[in-house]
Design a protein that fits this description.
The protein has 238 residues and is α/β, with parallel strands linked by helices. It contains ten helices and eight strands. Bound molecules: phosphoenolpyruvate (PEP).
Amino acid sequence: MIIVGNLKMNQTLEEASIYESKLTNSGIIICPSFPYLPIYKQNGYELCAQNVSEYNDGPYTGDVSASQLKSLKVKYVLIGHSERRHVYKEAQESLNNKVLKSLKQGMQVVYCIGETYEQKQNNQTFQTIENQILSLFNIIDNNDINKIIIGYEPVWAISDGINPGATPTNQEIDEVNKYITELVKEKYNQNIKILYGGSVNLNNIEQLVKLNNNAGFLIGGASKNVEDLLKIQEICKQ
Ligand code: PEP
């Protein structure tokens, strides 16, 4: 199973060094803040960037380009995370550009999608997910679809950094995973990998590990504790 730990905007330099020394070569894909990528790189961890610029190198102060990430041996990039879509109001066009730049550099993309609580209440879950997938998949080369991993993360299930969000039932997630799998097969004739994300932790992993059509987990808050993250991975291996 694929386990991705999204450390978000956490850790000091010292904390990153300690965390890195405990992660060992577990095979977990780790997403640290940009300044710490080289720390994790030195021991050959699989690296995922939390964001990427939609532009090529140039006068874009504060941005980090796909080619810069590539030079740090970053293998994956998170694009469309709900915090980027909702806090930073990143538009779909800009997400698409980020994906295109990342693919051009040979990186794989963890493309995050998911419905808000309001959309769920209005029975718009499938429509929302379909829109998010088609908006991207219609503009990329069909041969590149296998470089995209979907991160299905209901916005209402993501923790606020302190408290965990609600956990959907396995049935709810299974239905979405089935919908995504069939949509991508039908429209693009491709098999797609899906990760589940949204307050995955030691209390719910034994249940979530039974999901269908699930290639692994995208873990935010619980990944801050390296011991918990390793325990979650152990449970996924059983
Ligand atoms: C995430 O950051 O992708 C995430 C799912 O966060 P959390 O596990 O904290 O809900």
